[in-house]
């Protein structure tokens, strides 16, 4: 079998695209829950589901295939630029017609390599034209496009590739290739590995559609639904030009690309907006006293004016127009968003403080909400219809149910519509948990609607901390409040499930290695400035913890005490806390690809520290106590 597989064409060549995952040989595929096309879900790779058609609106539109969508885009935007890649310091671009042709070349290549119907093409690399072309090529060839995170270990890559029965795996470089070579002997369906990397040599047409097109920067992991929908599918449908950021985008180079491209729309996960905020505050602190006063005045005007706009009062006072000239335009230009009319955030919770910071600079950051299982967005905020802290209103053609609401109207958020997924591949039990008998997709998130139909997320069912006294406590609002009260804090995680009181794990803001993404020991510029204002001479995280720096520990306790004063009950007060030596990161495994906190990982990693909170014989007094 292995010899036969190798002679079939397993080898390495300079291809131009690919990506996917699939299930292991010998896996018993569960029977469809009912006759083909009559069920709301399926776990079969070749299964059918009932389309959730509606009598009117977007839900009544005729279904179309990826191929049909792409053909329509090519007919509309044929000579518009579609993809832009930085090659040797210059932007190499493909038009929509070139893009379409390359995808078909990839599809034919995959078939030649032995891609079978409903089998996977795994894609392992950073955002690029090759990634997009491999993804779409796999679909055009009748296979599955399966994104694999570049941070995955060989074993994690094996899980994905085996589960989707990958026939082909496309890798970006030698480093990613080595992961697949390490596990290829355990992938019985694998027939070829494609490594790309050479520049696409195409004649660029003489046209520039910049004024006619939306332009975006692709930098979020393409294995995640947010980037898939924004960068590939929505971009294709709307004729958007996509520029690819550098692989170290999330380690510091993103703003440089934004300044160069000047996108007209930008989606940032909360951590990206928070990092921008931190950098801007750090720069602001170094400005002259006069500049700081002008900035503070402009931010005050900006916040008040934009809050009034949210309430429908659209008039712009003279001082707002003056502040736009003096401050707002310069800020937008500095971060590359001077042409951006749509700034969005999603994939994880964002604090009200961060939203207000950007709103004060006349940069409204609007929230999206959805799941991978709902093909991305389910609700959206719009420039003329958004509220701070809300995820907006449900998209046309989609439906929301608040399941089993309590007295405050809070219940589990459930979705319905044609955007709901078919099911989890080969996972019938998990699919039944997600989709109920009436076809509603259960999100696991808690939320409510206000009187105007805006959706507000209040917590997550699985994240709820249930104390020994039986009180249900959503951790995120408390964590956000602590981070806002103590600017030196980078990450906070509340613990106390089944315990008598709440405690908190804290990390400090530090310098991150630009190459590896690993948090270091040196304090960040903002953290250093915080220490200096308090009279502390500490420059490292380890110095603060080893000496239990009095000024810093006192400031943290003061901040937490202030948060506790606003708690709705004693059960929601933070009684103990500890500073950890390392900040949470993607590198350390505590954060996911969209920088969302992976609570089970943190709980396991610091289980001894957490246990120590509750080993004292004396109960907490009400004032938070710190542990070294």
TrEMBL record:
InterPro entries in UniProt: AMP-dep_synth/lig_dom (IPR000873), ANL_N_sf (IPR042099)
Catalytic activity: a long-chain fatty acid + ATP + CoA = a long-chain fatty acyl-CoA + AMP + diphosphate
Gene: ACSBG2
Residues in AMP-dependent synthetase/ligase domain copies: 70-204, 211-425
EC number: 6.2.1.3
Region annotation Disordered: where it falls in the sequence: 1-43
Organism field: Zonotrichia albicollis (White-throated sparrow)
UniProt keyword annotation of Lipid metabolism present: yes
Keywords on record: ATP-binding, Cytoplasm, Fatty acid metabolism, Ligase, Lipid metabolism, Nucleotide-binding
Origin superkingdom: Eukaryota
GO CC field: endoplasmic reticulum; membrane
Keyword hit for Transcription regulation: no
An example Gene Ontology molecular-function term: ATP binding
Listed SUPFAM superfamilies: Acetyl-CoA synthetase-like
Pfam family, one: AMP-binding
Designated name of the protein: long-chain-fatty-acid--CoA ligase
């Amino acid at each position: 079998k292995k010899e036969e597989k190798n002679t079939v064409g397993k080898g390495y060549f300079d291809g131009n695209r690919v990506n996917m995952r699939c299930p292991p040989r010998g896996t018993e595929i569960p029977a469809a829950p009912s006759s083909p096309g009559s069920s709301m879900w399926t776990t079969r790779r070749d299964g059918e589901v009932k389309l959730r058609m509606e009598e009117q609106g977007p839900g009544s539109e005729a279904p179309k295939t990826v191929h049909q969508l792409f053909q329509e885009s090519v007919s509309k935007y044929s000579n518009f630029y579609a993809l832009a890649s930085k090659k040797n310091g210059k932007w190499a671009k493909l038009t929509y017609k070139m893009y379409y042709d390359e995808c078909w070349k990839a599809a034919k290549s995959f078939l030649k390599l032995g891609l079978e119907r409903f089998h996977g093409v795994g894609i392992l690399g950073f955002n690029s034209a090759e990634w997009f072309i491999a993804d779409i090529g796999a679909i055009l060839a009748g296979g599955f496009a399966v994104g694999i995170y570049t941070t995955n270990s060989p074993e994690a890559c094996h899980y994905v590739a085996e589960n989707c029965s990958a026939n082909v795996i496309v890798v970006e470089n030698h480093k990613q290739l080595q992961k697949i070579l390490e596990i290829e002997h355990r992938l019985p369906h694998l027939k070829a590995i494609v490594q790309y990397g050479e520049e696409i040599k195409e004649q660029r047409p003489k046209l520039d559609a910049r004024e006619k097109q939306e332009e975006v920067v692709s930098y979020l992991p393409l294995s995640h639904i947010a980037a898939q929908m924004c960068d590939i599918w929505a971009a294709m449908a709307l004729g958007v030009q996509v520029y690819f950021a550098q692989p170290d985008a999330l380690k510091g180079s993103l703003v440089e690309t934004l300044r160069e491209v000047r996108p007209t729309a930008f989606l940032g996960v909360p951590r990206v907006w928070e990092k921008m905020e931190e950098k801007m505050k750090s720069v602001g602190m170094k400005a002259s006293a006069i500049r700081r006063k002008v900035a503070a005045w402009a931010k005050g005007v900006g916040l008040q004016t934009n809050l009034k706009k949210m309430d429908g009062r659209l008039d712009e006072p003279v001082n707002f127009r003056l502040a736009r000239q003096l401050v707002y335009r310069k800020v937008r230009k500095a971060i590359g968003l001077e042409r951006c009319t749509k700034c969005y955030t999603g994939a994880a919770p964002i604090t009200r403080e961060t939203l207000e910071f950007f709103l004060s600079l006349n940069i409204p950051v609007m929230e999206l909400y959805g799941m991978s299982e709902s093909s991305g967005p389910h609700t959206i905020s719009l420039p003329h219809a958004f509220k701070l802290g809300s995820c907006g209103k449900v998209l046309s053609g989609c439906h929301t149910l608040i399941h089993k609401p309590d007295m405050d109207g809070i219940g589990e958020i459930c979705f319905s519509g044609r955007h709901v997924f078919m099911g989890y591949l080969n996972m019938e039990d998990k699919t039944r948990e997600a989709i109920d008998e009436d076809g509603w997709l259960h999100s696991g998130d808690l939320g409510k609607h206000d009187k105007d139909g805006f959706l507000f997320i209040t917590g997550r069912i699985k994240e709820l901390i249930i104390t020994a006294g039986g009180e249900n406590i959503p951790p995120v609002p408390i964590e956000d409040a602590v981070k806002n009260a103590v600017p030196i804090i980078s990450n906070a995680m509340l613990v106390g499930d089944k315990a008598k009181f709440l405690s908190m794990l804290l990390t400090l803001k530090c310098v991150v290695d630009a190459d590896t993404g690993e948090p270091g020991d040196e304090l960040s510029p903002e953290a250093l400035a915080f220490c200096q204002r308090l009279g502390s001479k500490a420059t490292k995280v380890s110095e603060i913890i080893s000496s239990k720096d009095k000024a810093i520990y006192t400031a943290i306790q003061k901040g937490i005490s202030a948060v506790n004063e606003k708690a709705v009950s004693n059960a929601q007060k933070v009684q103990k806390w500890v500073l950890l030596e390392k900040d949470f990161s993607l590198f350390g495994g505590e954060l996911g690809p969209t920088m969302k906190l992976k609570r089970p990982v943190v709980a396991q990693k610091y289980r001894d520290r957490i246990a120590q909170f509750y080993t004292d014989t004396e109960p907490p007094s009400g004032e938070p106590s710190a542990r070294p």
